[in-house]
Amino acid sequence: MVKLRNDFLWGGAVAAHQLEGGWNEGDKGISIADIATAGTNDKPREITDGILKDQFYPNHEAIDFYHRYPDDIKIFAELGINAFRTSIAWSRIFPNGDEERPNEKGLEFYDKLFDELLENGIEPVVTLSHFEIPYHLVTKYGGWRNRKLIKFFVRFAKTVFTRYKNKVRYWMTFNEINNQPAINKGSLLTNSGLLLKKNENAEKLMYQASHYEVVASALAVQIGHQINNNFKIGAMIAMVPIYPASSDPKDIFKAQRAMQARYWFADVQAKGQYPKWLVKYQEDSNFDLDITLEDLDVLKAGKVDYIGFSYYMSMTIKSKENEPANYKYEEERDIVNNPNIPTSEWGWQIDPKGLRYSMNWLNDKYGLPLFIVENGLGAVDEINHNHQIHDDYRINYLKDHIEQMEIVVADDGIDLIGYTPWGFIDLVSAGTGQMSKRYGLIYVDKDDSGNGTLNRYKKDSFFWYKKVIESNGENLGNL
Ligand code: BG6
Questions:
Q1: Atom 9 of ligand 1, nearest CA residue
Q2: Is the pLDDT of residue 99 over 60?
Q3: Which H or E run includes 84?
Q4: What does the pLDDT look like over 297-317, one tens digit per residue?
């Protein structure tokens, strides 16, 4: 017998820039997602200097949800979800990011979207910043390297909290705030809008920008609670547990430090203070960060109400000979293959049991309600001439993870708010810009070059998930 909350949220998750399209409609400004070209697993997306004529930008049209949302929501209602996680594109509300007054047309769009959802019995769950900061904040201020971004973000948060205070209950501040590794390569960082300058210390910059983000998040939490004290405002972290490759104590410590380095963001957001190891590490590294006493008070006063997290995979780490005591975690360098679990076509190691491990770890550490706000399998789908998509592989992936989620609730007694699988309607991949990396239960007819009718078709996984929801998670059987 599964004991999910009575008000358990069964939903689906997306992000504005990955599905809306309408990139320059309703007086929207350019976001960093609008200047990202299409890539593949082997060829990274490029960030161009503004919009170039001969380039293809997959997020410009995405799946055209901006125009099609009323029809799409009918399909969502048929699926039976009661929650829809999306983000508010910052550049719809503040096109440049630094205006004093919001763009009314952008606010109206989300009013209509949220009303349509609510009329269909679907509660919007909203992320404030999901890889889509206004590009102007990058060119004029250097993105989150600049303290001024705190003010701009807080203004944005206050505007949308006030406007939607009776329509939205669950909020998250920054999507996958701990996903900051691309900085090592000097590329524009999706979360923080950073371009590395010549000879700049990337690690220091990451800590500085992240500090401004956690302060902005804490201020938003405080303001949100003042606007409506029923708001639940969460952190959102990319949860990828890192296992030691063996029982060698060197591997064990390395995995522990990797976990500390990956999850200190949640420590700050949930506990209101930096962990001791990090304070020491930053001091020893002579980063000389701009962290004021006032900031530290803000962090204490702006603790989150729950931990939202994405879960796709686990990683494994192995030590090397003669590693220094102050080991620096570097994901791309240090992760090794885990031979015990399979790997997806995009190289992600699939590990349903790791979800149980992760949720217990998060619960032990923070003791806050948890919310699985992303989970899913990116895979190539084939559509037949009857417009059917037999995606058993996706059903199996979701089933295995939901099974673990239910064990966590029933056997481990952990408080879980809901489950919103990622990209439950096909959308543009954030990592590669592809359409062919599909997560959806609903197929969208569009290819990687932007061709297709944009028609929607229900995959086998759609009918399967519908039954899961109808039975409140009791019926996980295949069709
Ligand atoms: C998460 C993001 O990292 O994973 C989403 O929050 C993203 O925006 C999802 O789409 C899946 O990643 P990808 O690269 O396959 O789109």
A1: 430
A2: yes
A3: strand 83-87
A4: 999 999 999 999 999 999 999
